[in-house]
């Protein structure tokens, strides 16, 4: 089992930036596809971005394209989400997730059920 812990959330004004980190342990991080999801109150958990195990391919939800950047550092077992030009509608709990079979897949997962392990989440609040 993989343990994941997110950090970097907080309160920021609209137009501001935050950088989320997700530290992992207990597995072979370099073989996992990784994803960032978010869930606002009363809404479903949706994909924000994902990155292939090699770092060579990324996916972004349309709502964050051009504003968010996902990256990973395999030597540190960590995945990042740089968020810029934040909007009030970005307010949510942000979760990172690991797809342990990522090394064997030809595509990046975009659904919750594509991922095996989850962190507890970090709150991001964007004020207007």
Characterization of this structure:
The N and C termini lie far apart (39 Å). It contains no helices and 11 strands. Strands 2, 4, 5, 6, 9, 10 and 11 form a 7-stranded mixed sheet that branches. The protein has a 4-stranded antiparallel sheet with strand order 1-3-8-7, with no helix packed on it. The protein is mainly beta and 128 residues long. Helix content is 0%, strand content 48%. The model has no long low-confidence stretch (mean pLDDT 96).
Key phrases:
7-stranded mixed β-sheet; 128 residues; 4-stranded antiparallel β-sheet; mainly beta; 11 strands
Helix/strand/pairing category? mainly beta
Would you identify the regions where 5 or more consecutive residues have pLDDT less than 50? none
What does the radius of gyration come to? 14 Å
Into which percentage range does the β-strand content fall? over 45%
Summarize the biggest pleated sheet.
7 strands, mixed
Shape: globular
Query: How far is the N terminus from the C terminus?
Result: 39 Å
Average pLDDT, rounded to a whole number, is: 96
Strand tally is 11
Helix content, binned percent: under 10%
- The secondary-structure element order is EEEEEEEEEEE
Count the helices. How many?
0
